[in-house]
Amino acid sequence: MNATLELDVLSVVLLIFAIALASRSLQSKPNNRWYILSAVTLLIVIGTELFAYQVDDIGVSSQIAPHRITNVLGFGLSPIVCYFLFRYISHTKYQQRSKWLFLPFSINGLLSILSYFNGWYFYVDAMNVYRRGPIFALATLNMLFYYGLCIVFLVKTLRAYEASDRPLLLFILATPIIGAAIQIVFPPVLTLWPGIALSLLLFYLFSQEQYYSFDVLTGLRNRSTFMRDLSDLQRICKGPATIVVCDVNELKKANDTYGHASGDALLVHAGGLLERCFRGVGKAYRIGGDEFAVISTKEEPLEVERSLSLLESQIKLYNKTGPVPLSLAIGWSWCESCGGNLFNTYVAADNNMYDTKEKMKQGRR
User: Fold this and answer.
1) Number of structural domains found in the chain
2) What CATH number should be reported for the domain holding residue 283?
3) How far apart are the two ends of the chain, measured CA to CA in Å?
4) What CA–CA distance (Å, rounded) separates 361 from 365?
5) The domain containing residue 195 runs over which residues?
6) Which tens digits make up the pLDDT trace of 270-322?
7) What distances in angstroms separate CA 141 from CA 40, 78, 126, 167, 202, one per listed residue?
8) CA 263, CA 270: separation in Å to the nearest integer?
9) What's this model's pTM, rounded to 2 decimal places?
10) At what angle do helices 192-211 and 3-24 cross, to 10 degrees?
């Protein structure tokens, strides 16, 4: 068995393992279907590559048609692997543009079929010898277009990940590129698809690990991450810190009046405002059903006060046009040194938030 075949067989094993993992949580995570589709499509593509080894005997005319059909499938499905992967990692953010994303791989599929007859992408001659066609590079560019979208989307969201996670994510993204580079340097060793297969598995494992660190609804860091960061900061940081705690007022009333979907939308918007208003100042978390928090390690609380002022103005702006009014009860506390004091600072901020909430209730009576 040559090196390429060994890599393909290893890739098949990795993909089957990845599909099995993703299928186990499909009911609770419906978005996994895009990942499974990507992995299954890649399995088919690698299958066409393995089958091509069986029908490439020079001079055997009976293998010409199967050889061409195999290449039609391989070229036609290649970009769809990365398209499905993009749908998996981008969730619903590109739903409105999804119809335009069909266009490149649809054209690629048509060109793949036509290549059976005219040899644009590939040519299998009368002696059953495979050669690249004049626009072979277009098929590769089509696939790279979708993989490029994956990279652009993930790079845009890079700051949402912890600093320790970013190198691993970048390595996962680079794996197919490394595979392509090896294939260019050593053409007989086909490492592009094994690289993508490995990247798919690693990315799924990485995303599942992130799933337990981030809140599914708002995309903010969750309570377990908040408590971990508090503990880490109290242990390693000797400088000042500020804790902000926010609670969405009358969320139950919003759910009862406008429906739970509107209540969820209110939480998402509240989380989004916190993330934007405290960008560069602190990390935002969703630590409960209607409760949020921010950790800031800025030297002076003045920057936190500016962010809170910006948050207040953004809430007023939102309530001028928003379908469901948003109101936040906010409390915060500052400590001069994180060491041994940060959890007490959190408790103080939480108590201040409840005091504010009670005053707001009395003001509405």
Assistant:
1) 2
2) 3.30.70.270
3) 80
4) 7
5) 3-211
6) 999 999 999 989 999 999 989 999 999 888 889 999 999 999 999 999 998 87
7) 21, 11, 28, 26, 24
8) 11
9) 0.68
10) 20
